[in-house]
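for the recovery benchmark. tokens below, seq after
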């Protein structure tokens, strides 16, 4: 059993059940590299400030590097008696170099130590997630550009509404993910604050240099309040909130991919590499990956609620409850990272059934709004034009025909303002390209959106410049 670093106050050993119940090393062990990184910076700062000797600091830093390599090689055994990764590493350090190792913890507490480790972890995780998210956006832009001529039915209430460009639909997801990128970027900014040196809650009486440590670890600034430093988990809650919204967007896309790949729609075909079969039905090709993306969204929601519930009643400053922040955060990071990695690979391999989309784009009287617009352009009040168009739709339903199958005489029977040009006006590509309002589905507007998106991706370094083709 490892000796507790805090056992000077206690006469009785910790109950075995308490050790097992309070241990976090089985999940916080993944912080080992961040813990050692922070400890090395802290040790060097102590030497720079004359708190420990440079020779002692060199020995500690060298040994921490050896421990890091040994952990990665599986040579360091971690068990529940060591309580957490911080104690495990310090125990290992003192076991190797004796009392000198005990000097490392001068002017710090596990409270600010774990706060630092989690910020280092989240800073790294957020950077990776932002890169993966931009890769997904790049895949969407590529799909949009490659399918710029494809027209599909646009939906409201899951009913045929108006024809839109398939690319326009894809670029809507690009915009959603752009907001997610902004939220994660903002979270990264609030995560990038250095808490080490705040000690247990009140700061330290040693002449430390937190600014030095901050520069050494690459933080943008030092936290302003030592109590807040050890008790703040806002950045983790903010991340889980941003992750939940991001997964909601992924889930909406996944839902459409599932629907579109069904025989009833047949808009797309998902690559075999991202589908599975049935144990009993030989013909089945199930879109399991997007289905699981929908399902995993729920666990990310749950992680957010877990953190909010965890933090809502805690007095300042540190409380052991905060140990429970890590598993929800780790799970959300892992889930979102795996999801984005898969989504970025799956999207480029989706086969688009453009003819099926185009054939369905005109079904369901999707040109009815333009029928009303035609009359409104001829000085018919829109409300009256809307009523006339509705009567024509009702007539077509009863006659079993589409709007384009009506003769001019039939249309004139509903309003005299109809003329020969109505048939060109109702042509699907014409309907689409008239939507020239800002953000509209007209080909010109979608091309502009793609150009802007490419410039945005290039500026953020998500894709290399040589892979970006700017529209002439």
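predicted aa per position
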């Amino acid at each position: 059993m490892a000796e507790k670093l805090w056992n000077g106050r206690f006469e009785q050993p910790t109950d075995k059940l308490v050790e097992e119940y309070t241990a976090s090393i089985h999940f916080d062990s993944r912080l080992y590299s961040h813990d050692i990184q922070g400890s090395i910076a802290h040790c060097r700062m102590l030497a720079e400030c004359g708190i420990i000797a440079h020779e002692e600091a060199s020995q500690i830093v060298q040994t921490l590097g050896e421990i890091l390599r040994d952990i990665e090689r599986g040579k360091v055994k971690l068990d529940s008696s060591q309580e957490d990764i911080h104690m495990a590493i310090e125990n290992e350090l003192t076991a190797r170099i004796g009392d000198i190792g005990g000097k490392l913890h001068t002017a710090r507490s596990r409270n600010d130590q774990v706060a630092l480790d989690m910020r280092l972890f989240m800073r790294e995780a957020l950077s990776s997630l932002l890169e993966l998210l931009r890769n997904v956006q790049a895949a969407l832009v590529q799909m949009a550009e490659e399918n710029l001529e494809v027209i599909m039915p646009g939906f409201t209430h899951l009913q045929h509404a108006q024809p839109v460009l398939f690319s326009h639909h894809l670029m809507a997801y690009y915009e959603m993910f752009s907001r997610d990128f902004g939220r994660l970027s903002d979270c990264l900014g609030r995560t990038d604050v250095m808490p080490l040196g705040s000690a247990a809650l009140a700061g330290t009486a040693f002449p430390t240099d937190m600014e030095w440590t901050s520069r050494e670890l690459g933080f943008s600034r030092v936290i302003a309040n030592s109590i807040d430093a050890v008790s703040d988990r806002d950045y983790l809650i903010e991340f889980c909130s941003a992750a939940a919204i991001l997964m909601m967007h992924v889930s909406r896309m996944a839902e459409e991919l599932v629907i579109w790949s069904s025989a009833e729609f047949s808009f797309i075909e998902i690559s075999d590499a991202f589908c599975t079969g049935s144990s009993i039905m030989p013909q089945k090709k199930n879109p399991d990956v997007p289905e699981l993306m929908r399902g995993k969204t729920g666990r990310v929601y749950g992680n957010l609620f877990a953190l909010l519930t965890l933090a809502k009643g805690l007095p300042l400053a540190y409380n052991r409850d905060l140990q429970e922040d890590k598993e929800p955060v780790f799970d959300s990071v892992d889930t979102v990272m795996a999801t984005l990695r898969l989504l970025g690979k799956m999207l480029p391999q989706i086969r688009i059934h453009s003819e099926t989309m185009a054939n369905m784009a005109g079904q369901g009287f999707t040109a009815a709004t333009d029928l009303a617009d035609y009359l409104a352009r001829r000085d018919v009040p829109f409300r009256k034009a809307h009523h006339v168009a509705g009567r024509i739709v009702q007539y077509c339903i009863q006659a079993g025909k589409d709007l384009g199958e009506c003769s001019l005489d039939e249309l004139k029977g509903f309003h005299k303002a109809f003329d020969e040009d109505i048939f060109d006006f109702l042509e699907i590509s014409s309907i689409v390209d008239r939507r020239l309002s800002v953000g509209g589905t007209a080909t010109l507007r979608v091309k502009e959106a793609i150009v802007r998106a490419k410039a945005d991706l290039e500026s953020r370094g998500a894709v290399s410049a040589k892979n970006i083709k700017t529209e002439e």
